[in-house]
Every structure is written in structure tokens, then in C-alpha cells.
Fold:
Amino acid sequence: MAAALLSLDRLECIFSTIDGPSRVLRGVSLEVQAGERVAIVGESGCGKSVTARAILGLLPPRATRLTGAIRFDGRDLLGLPPFKMRELRGRAITMIFQDPMAALNPMFTIRDQFREVVQRGVRHTAGTAEAAMRAALAEVAIADPARVLDSYSFQLSGGLNQRVMIAMALVNQPKVVIADEPGTALDVTVQEQTLRLMRRLSEQHATAILFISHNLGVVRTFAHRVAVMYAGRIVEQAPTGELFARPRHPYTRALLAAVPRLAVATLPRGIDGEVPDFHSEIPGCSFRPRCERAHPGCIAPVPTREAASGHFVACIDAAALAP
Amino acid sequence: MSAPSFLRLDAVSKRFDVAGTTVLAVDRISLDIARGSTLAIVGESGSGKSTLGHLILGIEAPSDGAILLDGQVLGPARDRTRRRRFGFVQQNPYSALNPRKTVRQAIELPLKVHGIGSARERHRRVDDLLERVGLQRGFAERWPAALSGGQRQRVVIARALATSPDLLVLDEPTSSLDVSVQARILALLGELQRELGLTYLFITHDLGVVRVMADAVAVLYRGRVVELAPVGSLFVAPRHRYTNLLLASIPAATAADEAVKPVWSWDAVPQDAAAADTGCAFRLRCPYAVPRCAAEAPELVADGADHLHACIAPAEPRQDFQPV
Structure:
């Protein structure tokens, strides 16, 4: 396989907080190939969004210690000076945020904000910038780009704002888009449309997408590959079909069982307990306190093993958990 | 729904005057809720589902129509009776609790307001309520900031139960929570309903969660009920096209669930078409609209025993899917 477009190599992140150091990422390794859609799934507080922000260089520098490596297109982003990072952000790497209403500034028209994004890409005159913005909005199925550009975000529906955000994220033809729970703040109908649109555009432009979600159901038809994250670590990773057909880690299985079913009228099963605090150190498997299958052996360090081709599991019983 | 009607909405409408124009948020809605049952109100933002909840709670007064409790017409205001008998669980447990009040103060407030019990009795009542919603007593002296989203929502539920209400209006009670926490809150709500004989008005935009929670479902679109059916019937044979769109939008975790979703022509019509002012409000977003949809506004018609829909070109009932 060719070198990955984006690769995280044993990424560790420690925040200094008033309660002491907080280990938010505990050795995250993940690769995204060009054009590939990879999902990171897990509950709130597992480190998904921190991973996204680390890649984008958006973590507060003075309170954060990042070690390991983030390689993008042959460069290590952690060693990059801030002005170089700013060059990448908004061009080669872009982001779609969870709540488009919060991400767009209500004091400026969509045109004002969009123009700033467009001008980070190729050199534009006023005319070519306008044309590029309209073309980008037309691509996300906005029927009347001129009206949308004249509007303020509060004059548009949530779905329209979401598509404006997608257009902004794609207009400079990035190599990878980081999408943090897009559509979660919106209606299910809009969420589904958002996912369909992003899938189509990523195929048309061969754009890689790193997609963050708390719901396994949401990523099933979207991602090529899924990484399940728990307490700052990736506990299972596999091609999407493989993961849904043969989930091995008890956490993955529990997350799947929590999604409401349509085919059967049974109550989804929740997961008891809470995601551990980042200050705490749980020896061995960090899911152990919530795991129904936990046994004394789980206190030992957990290696990540390849259980099947491309299917990685960090559970000491991974072999026993064969489907 | 053969049981005598506990709560009845009789052609209830609500108009708001917004910037010189009148918005009809709720348009002649009639519903019956049997005691001890759950009616789910489903629709997108702007469908009027939260306004409907506010009308029942008395936070808003209807512009037209009447709300009846045990056959008695309720006054327009949120009087003491309604405050005591109707509990409210809001969507966002982060904004529903005052950050400067402890859990005990939050849950005790409705008891004080209604003059229920002595100080000692109230103290015990708070402890009992916490236990009932699955929280240890130690939570009583904590501040909301020290609680997770799921724990906060349990506190909000305990507060809503403080005055021993008959009815809970649950406005998107789980939509800001993780699925792992959502499932536990849904289980808790089911237990509480069975133990206490509560009646639920369950407001949500996600049909996925109503399958196991609701007895009947009312689908709202632009202030109108477009489909009303027992939950099993709605999932097997969703007739209104808008109901089909909602079902087709549910993220499915398994291939079996995916197969249950109705087909939908996603790219046939503009996704962000506005509601139509004439005829069926949904027709501009509907790939299956026929010319008659523009000519007349469809009324709710019965299709079978207790399945009503307001669609001129409804989806055919499915033969291949039997609920388990």
C-alpha cells in the first residue's frame, strides 16, 4: 500500500488542567488513505474531537502537550511552525463542524465569510471569487446560490447552513476533510441528506474524510473503515462491513446494542457506568470497569492484535470473542 | 385506544404573531391520550411539536380549541393543578438545571412551591426520588456541573416526578445524549411508567426511539397531524409520504434494520424546498406528489381501524415486513 495521506502514530495528548495533567489521548495510531472515508466512533469524552483538533492544530498550545506524530502528505504536522499550519488549514485540510449555526458568524453575510475561505485557495479577482462560491454552493444542491450568499446564517435553515459549511470545506479542493458529528445538531432527515451529499462529493473529488460520530448506525453506510475509540485509545478498527458483521471488542458490541432497532421492538441496551475521567489511570483495559466479560486477567496491559485481515482489536479475549 | 380519554385535544390551534405576520404553529390538532399510555409526537424542527407540548403544559394558551383533562376543559393559564399534575422534562439537561442550585434544591423546589410535606418529609422525598431514577443519595448535595449528561437528565426526571404528576411531557429527552446513555434513560422511563402508571407525551424528531417507547404515534408536519396510528401499524405500514421520509432517515445499525426502512427517492426533489402554502404542505419536498396535492389540502382519513393519514398519494402498505 502506498504511504497514507494522513497518519497518526502513537499520538499522545496531555492537557494541563487545574486538577493536574489529563491524559486525553493515550497512543492513537490511525491511517487515512487518499479518498478514503474513515470514521472514529465512541461516546462523548473518549477523545474523538481532541484527535480531530490535534490534526488541525487547533488545541491551545500552552496547555497541551502532543507527542507521537501526525504525518500528512509526507510532513510531520507536529513539527510545523504555526504559520505553515495555517497555510494547510482551510486548503489541504478543512473541517466541518457539528453545529453550523454556531460555526457561522451571524454578524456577516454568508458571502463575506465564504469569500475569506475562497481567497485562502487560488488567487481570485472579485469576479472569479463570486463564480467559485456560486459553483461550490450549486454543488451542494443549493438552488439559489446568489440569495444564500446575500443571507445571514440566522436567515437560513439548519440544513442550508450545514450545506454552506460543506461547500466552504470543499471549495479549495482539500485532500482531507475532518467532519465532527455533522448533522447531529439537526433533524434526522437533514442528517441523512448531509451524509448522502458528503459521500457523493467525496467520491466525485476523491476527497478523504475523517468522520467523527457517537453513533455507530450513522457511519455504517458512510465510512470505508471504522475506528472505535474508548478512553483515549482505539480499541477496535476494521473495514466497515467486517466491523458490523463481526464486531469483537465488547465495547463495540455494546455501542451497537445501544442503537435503537427498527426490525425488532426491543429496548436498546445501554452501557452501565461512565466513560472514565482523563485524570484516572486504569491499569490494563480501560473498559474493564464497565465490561460484562471482564475478568482478573484484564488488568494486564492490552496489546492490539490483528484478528482478521485489517481487523485490529485491543482486547485480551479477542481470539475468544471470535464471532 | 378504547380506554376512556385521559387527555383530549379538541381542534387546538396556536397562532404566533412574528414580525407582522401570523404563523400558525399548531393547526386544529385533535388527539386523545389514554391514561398510562405513551403518545409520541414526531416531526422536524418547526413542525409545532414543542408548541404542542407547551400548550398541554399551559406554558402557552391555545388560540382556538380546547384541552380536556378527564373530561374537564382546562383553563388557558398554567394553574396550580396543571403544574402539579403535569411534569416537564426538557431536551437539554445542561440548560434545564440552575448551575447555582444543588441537586437537592432543584428537586425540592416544586415540593416547596406546592407546600408538600414538612422540611423533613421533603428531605426524604428527594432521597426517594433520586433512588427511583437510579442515582445514589450522595448525588443530592452535588452541583449540576459535577454531573454527566445522563445523570443530569435523571435529576431533571426526578424533579418532574416530585409532585407525583399523572402526565410527563418529555420534549426530546434523549436527543442530546450518547446512544449508550440514551438507551438507559429510555429504560428508566419505561420502568417509571409501569411502576407509577404515568402517561407520557413523548416529543421527538427521531422515529427510531419511539418504536419501543410509544403506544401511538402522531406525525406532525407544519403544525398539522399528517399521520396518527398505533406504533406497530405505523412501522409496518407508514402511509403518509412524510412518515416514510422520517423512517428512511433513521441511521440503522444492522442490515436487518436497513431492510425495514422504506424506499425513498432522495434526489428527485430539492431537499430544502419550503412548505407549500396551498394544498399539502409537504408536496414540494415529496417525490411522489401528484397534481391533486397542489389543488386540495388533504384531511386526516381513516385507513383501517385506528390508522389515520392525510396523504393523497400514500405509500402502499408493505407486505414483506412483519414486526417482531
